[in-house]
Amino acid sequence: METQITPSNEGIIRAAQLIRDGQLVAFPTETVYGLGANAKDAEACRRIYEAKGRPPDNPLIVHIPHRDDLSGLMRGAMNNQAERLLKAFWPGPLTVVVPCGGHISSVALGGLDTVAVRCPSHPVAQKLLQLSGCPIAAPSANRSGKPSPTTAEDVYEDMNGRIPLILDGGPASVGVESTVVDLSHEIPILLRPGAVTHQQLEHFLGPVTLADDSTPARSPGMKYRHYAPRAPVQWWDTDDVDQALTRWQSLAMPRERYGLLASEEIGRALGPALFYNLGDNDGAAAQNLFAGLRTLDRERPAAIIVVWKQSTPLGAAIANRLAKAAAPNPTGDDNE
């Protein structure tokens, strides 16, 4: 199969037709690029799992164009607090898990009785949803376990020969996958942190508990190791230049064999041969994290060292991804 990268304004009509025909299309969202298929078509959803090498028990996030479309996918109704939450953050980088009311392929549900739903804000994603005329199941458009793609070129690196079309809408503006909150319980559960923070969720919903190891995996990004490049990742949880320099100088292997993902200030102090600027705040770090991991990994370093410390609530999402990327013994999973 030949994979084409097409500017979104030129390829959107063809992309919608491919979705209607049961094929796969990679497309931009504000968080990361998604790998989309008709969420009602079981065979199309199976193609997502095959293209990604994704475990079949890992549910897909279903994308819809309008907030009102959620009622046709869920069982029951939203309470007033949840309605206010969606009015505040949809369209946007928020996924809600609700009891499934049917109309979605069981393949996309990963064997669960709930469905994860998002209304994206990216104009290309919105137009694709409207032209396709169906909900689109779309995990991140990477091979299972790798860092999520934030550009069309990242998608091509993983999906060349596996899908027919990639819509190029430029770099993702958020850079990390959506926040996922489970609303199928009396007390909501934050399953995955993202750009919509825990504090923002509690402002609308009241108490929101944090997922732990005993929480059922009703969302992508909860199992195994993922977000990981080929090279091992070490996360140094500091923003102190002297501490970072001391650790850098004590590395076991020659320092030119390491890649460094850090702020420009720390990069100048450590002077690595392979460096990617993570940025000097959490917003920039979220945008640059996956791009930096992928860029450094192409140089085949012995390891990638990430020097970063959380400074805002958004940083919880970055910390979550870094902890998983640095986890040992990968067994393969997905991100979005």
TrEMBL record:
Gene3D superfamilies in UniProt: DHBP synthase (3.90.870.10), Threonylcarbamoyl-AMP synthase, C-terminal domain (3.40.50.11030)
Binding site for ATP: R54, N58, H63, T114, R118, S140, S148, R192, Y227
InterPro entries in alphabetical order: DHBP_synth_RibB-like_a/b_dom (IPR017945), Sua5-like_dom (IPR006070), Sua5/YwlC_C (IPR038385), Sua5_C (IPR005145), T(6)A37_SUA5 (IPR010923), TC-AMP_synthase_SUA5 (IPR050156)
Subcellular location as annotated: Cytoplasm
Pfam families recorded: Sua5_C, Sua5_yciO_yrdC
GO cellular component, one term: cytoplasm
Highest taxon of the lineage: Bacteria
GO molecular function annotation: ATP binding; double-stranded RNA binding; L-threonylcarbamoyladenylate synthase; tRNA binding
Role according to the record: Required for the formation of a threonylcarbamoyl group on adenosine at position 37 (t(6)A37) in tRNAs that read codons beginning with adenine.
Name the UniProt record assigns to this protein: Threonylcarbamoyl-AMP synthase
Species of the source: Sulfobacillus benefaciens
